[in-house]
Amino acid sequence: MKGKKFLWVAVSVLVVLALALSACGPKEEEPTTPTTPTTPTTPTTPTTPTTPTTPTTPTTGKEHPIRGGVLNYPETRPTVGFDDCHIYGHFCKTCDQVNEKLYMGDWAKGPQGTGETGLLTPGYAGMENMVGSLAEDWEMPDDQTFIIHVRQGVYWQDRQPVNGREFTADDVKFSLELKDDPERCPLRPLQSYCPKGLAGPIEVIDKYTLKVNMPPELLGMYQQILLTMTTIKPPEVYEKYGDMTSWHNVVGTGAFMVKDYVPDQALVLEANPNYYDVNPLFPDAGPRPFIDEVRIITILDQATRQAALKSGKIDWEMNTNVDQGDTIIRDFPYMQYLEYLHHGVQALFCRHDVAPFSDIRVRQAMMMAVDQPGYLRDMLKGRGHILNFNIPPYPENMSAFVELEDLPEDIRVLYEYHPDRAKELLAEAGYPNGFTAEVLTTSTYIETTQVFKSYLADVGIELDIKVMEPGAFRAQTYAVPRAYPHCVCAGTGTAVPRRVPQYMPGDLENYSVYDASEEYYNIWNNWFDFEVREGYVRDMHLRMKREVLAMAIPTSNTYRLWNPWLKGYGGEQCVGNQIRDNWTQFVWLDLDLKREILGHD
Questions:
Q1: What are the 10-residue block averages of pLDDT along the chain, 601 residues in total?
Q2: What is the phi/psi pair of residue 403, to 5°?
Q3: pTM (2 decimals)?
Q4: Strands 209-213, 203-206: parallel, antiparallel or unpaired by DSSP?
Q5: What per-residue string of b and e applies to 452-465 under the rule 16 or more CB within 10 Å gives b?
Q6: Cis peptide bond upstream of 390, omega within 30
């Protein structure tokens, strides 16, 4: 109890200090509220987006890892669960720092290494960007069998009831069978990706080898689920407690262990002294992690987070808008940063299965009625991108991404501003005087909804906006069959451009009631042939653009900021598929530099 009280006091002091600094320091610039751009009288062509800047280089040459210290970073979404069978991964900060998957992203191919991938988002990637963690290797002797070879010499954390025993193939078998059981793992079970589930029992061949049988289809998706998306968990915890929803029962093989937790305040992790792997860029530095402790602190207010970063109370901040980031970098020239295109998009989704949106001419007219080039130019000052939905131009996506100027003419024109042509299309579709449509949204997206409303009114389309509480919004928009009459304005992630299930009939977030079944099978049945697979991904996104899956406004760049004593870091966050926050195990702290800059510890 004394330790718990100390943690609560420490976190409270940190937040209070940050608030005080925010009040006493330079006044924070408030983010500007987007306004509707002035409507040009003639069609405009897209502005060429600015290229995101690369992070400043702390020093010349590679520095060597240093052990010790406490890493503090903020979260805007409190940790509310510890078992990803019952809570989404972005609310579970232990799922990838304490527990692990069989494969993870290759740190050596990220910004600190070759730069082949940005390691920015938890999107699906082929095995070309992955490396074994709990698995040494895998093979596929035929189109219905996976053989998985688990890593030898790995031990569970020395916590009850597992007590540090060796990790074996039986643990993988248990975890895969758990993923295949919708009753015990109701959130995103295997069947939500692969409707047929596993084709037969999992066979443990020996202590370090197992065989998995599956149907001869969707082999790529099965591979992703088995190797990169299934959290490996100890059966003893489930046998004793039924699940791993309590932080007291969290046991993994990962680089960190749970030390303490205060709901809505902080989660504290400590280094696993028996972790088995190294930083691939510094193999001679010994096993990772290099940091003694990670404190994940809930700080909801952005001004407070920024004040804490500038005062050195926290070491890292995930997202800061470009205006505020420019000010911080100007006032604190030692601050390290990465300016990049944010993967979150706000879009208007209209049901393709109901009139008038079942007519492609109506959807295309709506696209041409919105001045996307003007919005990028006037609202975002060119620091963003029009084509972020639904495949962002990140390094790992360029094999399937098509630049604006390279799009087919019939698609490119949709991203220009042609209100007169929009009116013609509406008349051809039988709506010369426009129509009225209901749009459901929440307060988070009301400004974006108003932008769409203003533009569409100019071509005779009236949006009747219904603002709902988040809970009621999800209840109505996630219902299948759909419980809303026309449209939804909401946020969506573009982090997973190969996540075809989102556009399959019945998926909760398929607001447009779009059907990408053909692409789903083409992509995942050809997953192992890189050129063929990426060709299908590219064609899928071209079709989604042509058929107007959704109308998205241009996305702004954002900053990721960190203090210069955080070393071995270049803006990474997600080192793997559906993996978040495991970058902490690769980095280290230069506490001498921190004292030199701040004048104190």
A1: 45 45 36 35 38 38 87 87 83 89 94 90 75 95 93 97 98 93 81 72 96 85 86 97 95 98 94 97 97 96 95 95 96 96 90 97 98 96 90 86 95 97 98 98 96 98 97 89 94 66 76 89 87 92 94 94 97 86 96 94 75
A2: -65, 155
A3: 0.85
A4: antiparallel
A5: bbebbeebbbebeb
A6: yes
